[in-house]
Amino acid sequence: MAASVPAVSDLVAAARRQFTRSFGEETPQVAVCAPGRVNLIGEHTDYNQGFVLPMALPLVTVVVGSLNLGQDVTIVTVAEDADEPREVSFSLAGDNSALTPGVPRWANYVKGVIQHYRASPLPGFRAVVASSVPLGGGLSSSASLEVAIYTFLQQLKPDGGDNVAKALSCQKAEHTHAGVPCGIMDQLVSILGKEGQALLIDCRSLEVSPVPLVLPGPLILITNSNLKHSLANSEYAKRRQQCEEAATALGKKSLRDATMKELEEVKSRLDDVIFRRARHVIEETERTLQAAEALRRGAYKEFGRLMVESHNSLRDLYEVSCRELDQLVSAALEVDGVFGSRMTGGGFGGCTVTLLEAHSVDKAILHMQERFSGTATFFITSPSEGARVLPLS
Ligand code: GAF
């Protein structure tokens, strides 16, 4: 059975209960949320200035809170599996030393966003964070926290309201405070997500074009392997560096500018690993454009085929998949009515995404459960709204 996605109002209610417990007040002044994302195709292309096709999820991070009179900040998390202190306090007075990354690690995202916020000085605040985005599950729990905090701060002190600049500030927070040299996809889709639409993002111009998912159409099934990935400790930074090496060898600013013909021409001068990394990026960028076109036409079989090609390339050329994700994808593809399936996000654990006919959902879940060596969780999802301010009654 697919799990149900918790309602945003339930998360807000949980955060408000904690707010009352922690601060002794009934009603916070502000409530906001920002979603996680699933990437349909275009993996490891964003930091190569290529294309990506993600959509915002109904899974969100909620922040509720109020302004403090001074510059003191207290934040409490209700995250279920936080194995670190759930409360952190610091002062924004003086230099920025209070914002240095440390423990608890979840608070580093908050500190990073404060540090890179586009208006200063920021007032102090007290806030509670609650999230339905699985932590470390490849669905951008970190970007959703960054964007939720930024959106919350915008209610306390307006920053001019430019969405792209907001995404870039949140991305910077991830670079400086989580040590992950991520691209821009996760933050941008968490801000700009639209109900019923995937977003084709040009990660060079940062232009975003909506790609409607027409109803009644196929469904999107997310399968969490529950194998936690750790981007910071993983090979993510190494992949990025390998791509830069390939671009330099090709005499290009980024792999976005390279063609397979040009890559073949320098093959003899390139290390085989670098060649394979570059090949993935060049072909994945092209696949993403084709996939967006296929989705617009409702050509789901073609879209599914491109998803599978993407997965195979991530497995064989980019080497960011793992046995568990491969098992889940292979199992999904054995079921009638499945158009395509692939790992999604940075890799090394986390989730797969599967496009399938509505009548095949139960069969697909059962089959994946049977074939999978671990314990997976499943949910059906649809494209949802990006970051927003929530009503408080
Ligand atoms: C992670 C990163 F944060 C994104 O920027 C992107 O590179 C993705 O991995 C891989 O496509 O989610």
Helix-residue proportion = 25-40%
- SSE order in H/E notation? HEEEEHEHHHEEEHHHHHEEHEE
Give me the count of strands: 12
The overall pLDDT, averaged over residues, is 95
Rough outline: globular
Derived from helix and strand composition plus strand pairing, the structural class reads: alpha+beta
Summarize the biggest pleated sheet.
Answer: 8 strands, mixed
Q: Output the radius of gyration.
A: 21 Å
Contiguous runs where pLDDT drops below 50 for at least 5 residues: none
CATH fold type of the largest domain: Ribosomal Protein S5, domain 2
Distance between the termini: 34 Å
Number of helices, counting only DSSP H or I runs of 4 residues or more? 11
User: Under the CATH scheme, which class of the largest domain?
Assistant: Alpha Beta
| Bound ions, cofactors and other small molecules, one mention each | 2-deoxy-2-fluoro-alpha-D-galactopyranose
